[in-house]
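Its record is retained below.
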Amino acid sequence: MNLVWPVTIKPDIMKQIRQPYILRLASILISTTLIVIALYYLEVVIVPLLFSIIFAVMIFPFCLRLEKWGLSKGIAAFTTVFIATVLLGFLGYILFTQVSIFTENIPQISNKINLLINDLRDFAANKLSMKKSVVAGKIQDQLTQLQNSSDFMPASMLRVISAVLINIFLVPLYTFFLIYFRHFFMEFFYKVFQGADKELIDDTIQKMELVIKGYLFGQLLDILIIGAANAVVLYFIGVGYAIILGFLIATFCIIPYLGMIVGSLLALLVAFITTNTSWQPLTAFSVLWVIHIIDSNLVAPVIIGHKVSINPLVAIFVLFLFGELWGLPGLFLAIPLTAILKVIFDAVPGLHPYGFLLGEPQKYHLKKHSLTHINVLQRKKEMENQKPISESLPTDESLTQSLPEE
């Protein structure tokens, strides 16, 4: 007597069985490579569009308020984009004036750096028993490299300025049409994902919108608060370029762990160059770290909260990845784009593991015997989802049907 056990295989598992693993791996690698190449070479096209999407999401509530006051959709979109562009232009002008002051004082800074290098050379020759010729040769090589990079600076600055000018025209234009044609684009998403539930599409887009607004508004507010605190502290200590340096350090803090290290070392270097005593750089370095600790434990959790729960390792990786792809714009876009990807991965059933990987570890992942805790939790979850034994066993009717006919 042969018993036939009823077995059902899910379609996605059946598809994986039919498709060899090596073929799936090759297709994933080829697709990833093509996407990275496209992102690199289409930077001029993609980056303004991404900035426009984020910009549109941020200013859309103000546009909606103008529409409720009676303005038409086109006039409300134009007014909102125009006011936001003027405000950003004003902030850019302030930043440009600070950078101009810094560039005008480059000769004095260069002389101060030369004096500092001479002191380091004498210290190395006297205290470390190194020959002055060796020290001078190494320092001369570094100065030559610095000179070459400074000669290259005008060309790189010209490229940056040209890219900024292009974005000044493209980003507001894209933003206006994204807001004005928003219902048209929503219908496009419905047509693309016809098999999906419309409520799921609306919920996913709403989560992406909340992530962008929550993260960017919170991050900008945090940068303003911490940047102002840094600038005030550096100004009273007597460090030069306090305003631009304070806000630059606050911006560096977007990078988890590494950002504050780089920012504090930069502040230490600028303090050594622009001050005449030894206590000022050390005081600036120490006070900036105190501000950062207060921000990390008190200010940032209240302002930003857990709106964007990105794994710190993933955050550092994507910052370097997008920075290598797109430079400075990539650093600004890295975290929001990763957060949007996490929302999409969490919404698509087949991509849940990748959304889990992008998220922050839970407390039980960080315990001493975390693997044991994870296994226990997994067993509990499997037991909760497991059917009762009476439902798993075959019935008498199914056994009778599976018997061979005599």
Summary: The chain is about 80% helix and 0% strand.
